[in-house]
């Protein structure tokens, strides 16, 4: 499995509720309709209260952690190729621009490790 993690920041004029509503009802369905091979797609929206502050006092500068799973490297390459097609890239960018500060978007591939819980 290939796991991509994206950090996105909403526009300051968009409320948290508006951001979540738009992402869940418009953007996520668009992503799923345009990009092939996604086997899981999760959005975790930041709750500012209860967050651990950075030691240097810098603010949390993103509003959602997006996780996308693809079955393998070949699927990831197809995903990237499709996302880079001019018409697809434009549609995604225009939709994202409604809610997000695109200059702050970061996407990485991660190696996920789980710790055993409750065992000896």
Radius of gyration: 16 Å
Q: Could you say which overall geometry the principal axes of the C-alpha atoms support? A: globular
Mean pLDDT: 93
Strands of the biggest beta sheet: in what spatial order? Answer: 2-3-1-4
- Major sheet: 4 strands, antiparallel
Share of helical residues: 25-40%
- Alpha plus pi helix count: 3
CATH architecture verdict = 2-Layer Sandwich
Describe this entry's structure for a reader.
The model has no long low-confidence stretch (mean pLDDT 93). The relative contact order is 0.28. With 120 residues, the chain is of the alpha+beta class. Strands 2-3-1-4 form a 4-stranded antiparallel sheet. The longest helix is centred in the first third of the chain and has 19 residues, at 16-34. 38% of the residues lie in helices and 21% in strands. It has one domain (2-47, 61-110): Alpha-Beta Plaits (2-Layer Sandwich), CATH 3.30.70.
List the helices and strands and how they pair.
Layout (H helix, E strand, L loop, with lengths): L1 E7 L7 H19 L5 E6 L18 E7 L2 H12 L1 H14 L6 E5 L10
Antiparallel strand pairs: 1-3, 1-4, 2-3
Structure at a glance:
This protein has 120 residues and is an alpha+beta fold. The chain is 38% helix and 21% strand.
What descriptors fit this protein?
single chain; 4 strands; 4-stranded antiparallel beta sheet; 3 helices; 120 residues
């Amino acid at each position: 499995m290939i796991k991509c993690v994206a950090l996105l920041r909403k526009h300051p004029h968009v409320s948290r509720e508006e951001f979540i509503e738009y992402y869940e009802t418009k953007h996520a369905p668009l992503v799923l309709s345009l990009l092939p091979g996604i086997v899981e797609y999760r959005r975790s929206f930041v709750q500012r209260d209860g967050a651990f502050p950075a030691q240097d006092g810098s603010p949390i500068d993103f509003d959602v952690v997006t996780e996308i799973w693809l079955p393998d490297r070949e699927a990831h390459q197809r995903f990237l190729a499709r996302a880079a097609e001019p018409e697809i890239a434009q549609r995604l960018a225009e939709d994202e621009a409604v809610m997000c500060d695109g200059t702050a978007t970061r996407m990485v591939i991660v190696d996920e490790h789980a710790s055993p819980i409750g065992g000896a």
